Amino acid sequence: MGESRDLLTPEQRSRNMSRIRGKNTKPELLVRRILHAKGYRYRLHGMAAGGKLPGNPDLVFAGRHKVIFVNGCFWHFHDCPAGMHAPAANAEFWDAKRRRTRERDAEQRERLAAAGWEVLTVWECGLKDRSALEARLTGFLDGGPGA
């Protein structure tokens, strides 16, 4: 399976990459469904009363001054197996791109914290245990610190 992906032409790879969503992903929709079912209300994609927030958080809880990012492990270079997977084709490009994403994420979290926002990052790999995810989400929103 991995071999056929590495044999794509640059045009095919570009077409495939252009179809990957940045908003309304399956992991994000799962988190939104869980929170909505529990009665939490939020704004989407970085919108707060004062305008756009740094990093465009996936969910914004303005009244609580809290935000949630739902990150894909590969794209945001998480330290889980999926995040540590390194593409064989164009490896230097992907390594630099993913490292820059990680750096940008850290910068955005710092900017949000400096503006008084608490931040929680939910990783795609953390969605498997739904009860643990629910506990983490509600714990954060009901007073616990971000992670």
From TrEMBL:
Q: Cite the SUPFAM superfamilies for this sequence.
A: Restriction endonuclease-like (SSF52980)
Q: Which CDD domains match?
A: Vsr
Q: Give the region (Disordered) as residue ranges.
A: 1-22
Q: Which EC class heads this enzyme's classification? A: hydrolase
State where composition is biased (Basic and acidic residues): 1-14
Instruction: Please give the Gene Ontology molecular function terms for this protein.
Output: endonuclease activity; hydrolase activity
What does the record list as GO biological process? Answer: mismatch repair
- The EC number(s) attached to this protein equal 3.1.-.-
Report keywords, A-Z: DNA damage, DNA repair, Endonuclease, Hydrolase, Nuclease
> What's the family?
Belongs to the vsr family.
Role this protein plays: May nick specific sequences that contain T:G mispairs resulting from m5C-deamination.
The protein here is known as Very short patch repair endonuclease
Native organism is Arthrobacter cupressi
Top-down, what is the taxonomic lineage of the species of origin?
Bacteria, Bacillati, Actinomycetota, Actinomycetes, Micrococcales
